[in-house]
Amino acid sequence: MEFHGERNLWSFMDEERKSIKLPRRLSFGDGDQQQSSSEPENIRSASAARPDIAASEPTIPPRPMSPGTPWTLSPVRTSPSQSLLYHCIASLHRHEGNIFSITLSRDFIFTSSESSRIHVWKQPDCTEIGCIKATSGQIRAILAAGKILFTAHGDCKIRIWNASNAENFRPKKITTLPQRGRFSLFSKKSSQQHNDRISCLAYNKEDKLLYTGSWDKTVKAWKINERRCVDSFVAHEGHVNGIAINQEDGCVFTCSSDGSVKIWRRVFGESSHILTMTLKFQLSPVNALALSLSSTTTLLYSGSSDGLINFWEKEKMSGRYNHGGFLQGHHFAVLCLVALGDLVFSGSEDSTIRVWRREEGNCFHSCLSVIEGHHGPVRCLAVALETENLVRVKGLLVYSASLDQTFKVWRVKVFPAEKVNLVDETAAAKDPQREIVECETSPVLSPSWVEKKLQGNYFQ
């Protein structure tokens, strides 16, 4: 296990401002810090999307370049009602490989990558306080649940850590799943172990059950108190890419490269699981799931490789999930999803993050903003509520990691929904000049992940 000293993440301020080309390793000299502090803060605003064409967000031509930076200032939206503001408050580029997963606890931010290291940052000031170095291959998935951290490693095993809040961060490994048996010293693999990489994790807090999904097409349930696998079942015909759990009723949702989303329930009084529904509205692989729970409704979201986000609403009486529609806007595959209240955040292969809001009392969604800044596919997201005042203005911290090997922190402010003038918005939508500008502001893509895409392994 390896630990590193404290380092303030705010010192890694958007190195892309210095060069329009690929990100470079940041310099920690005093000169660079002074230059960063003198540059204007990059703040963007976005208005409520048009209800009839929420997939696009045209902008007027950007302002001229500001002195001292090759980046143009943020585009200004023409709508008088600004419903979302955002800006990037930190950007870090590491030459340790791609970040595969981000998870949040009350006190910490954890990131895992193909470097076999788990970096730990303090929340919300993002001071790096430690680093867990593993020797078991790439860490594809991590999950924080209270003071416990679950990590999935390249040896197809899960490590459980005690990551409680302390002045001197020293995580202690509790156990490894599956445990080595007394008579399995010479066996290569335990019968409880996955046969391929573990791609996703989910935790049932009430029953203390950890669910793991794998590329071996199976899902396993682990009883944490007993430290053993209590159920294993073949869930899909392709790789299992995502798992979500309804903490209220214990339903388990899985998605796969076979294009399906499935709902599983535990048999009463037993540890086994049965399939209750198969939701298949997309032909392309499903990469991510997110569950939105409220007092009035329960919605399940799925992001697929065709760029669509399908959603299902739960019937109160029968408990069935009915297809409610889809959110269209991303140009390429949706790789990650986060639902928080009436907001949905989606990261895509098109290198953007979209913020969607569901209207109160119905299932209509509007795209509030398209967050740009990454130069490769947005691989993982995490969102934390920072502030919320009496007028329902939400302050959020959004953490994102891309296959351009950058980790970014965004501060987002979401204002209450306002009525939109449909006539003015429709007329603006037909303006050809705005459509041209929208195409011209596409982000510059990193050749490193483009090459991986051509090789067919950029999601691996």
From TrEMBL:
<dbReference type="GO" id="GO:0016301">
    <property type="term" value="F:kinase activity"/>
</dbReference>
<dbReference type="InterPro" id="IPR020472">
    <property type="entry name" value="WD40_PAC1"/>
</dbReference>
<dbReference type="InterPro" id="IPR015943">
    <property type="entry name" value="WD40/YVTN_repeat-like_dom_sf"/>
</dbReference>
<dbReference type="InterPro" id="IPR045182">
    <property type="entry name" value="JINGUBANG-like"/>
</dbReference>
<feature type="repeat" description="WD">
    <location>
        <begin position="233"/>
        <end position="264"/>
    </location>
</feature>
<feature type="region of interest" description="Disordered">
    <location>
        <begin position="22"/>
        <end position="73"/>
    </location>
</feature>
<keyword id="KW-0853">WD repeat</keyword>
<keyword id="KW-0808">Transferase</keyword>
<feature type="repeat" description="WD">
    <location>
        <begin position="327"/>
        <end position="366"/>
    </location>
</feature>
<dbReference type="Pfam" id="PF00400">
    <property type="entry name" value="WD40"/>
</dbReference>
<keyword id="KW-0418">Kinase</keyword>
<feature type="repeat" description="WD">
    <location>
        <begin position="191"/>
        <end position="232"/>
    </location>
</feature>
<dbReference type="InterPro" id="IPR036322">
    <property type="entry name" value="WD40_repeat_dom_sf"/>
</dbReference>
<keyword id="KW-0677">Repeat</keyword>
<protein>
    <submittedName>
        <fullName>Myosin heavy chain kinase B-like</fullName>
    </submittedName>
</protein>
<dbReference type="Pfam" id="PF23754">
    <property type="entry name" value="Beta-prop_IP5PC_F"/>
</dbReference>
<feature type="domain" description="IP5PC-F beta-propeller">
    <location>
        <begin position="139"/>
        <end position="266"/>
    </location>
</feature>
<dbReference type="InterPro" id="IPR056454">
    <property type="entry name" value="Beta-prop_IP5PC_F"/>
</dbReference>
<dbReference type="InterPro" id="IPR001680">
    <property type="entry name" value="WD40_rpt"/>
</dbReference>
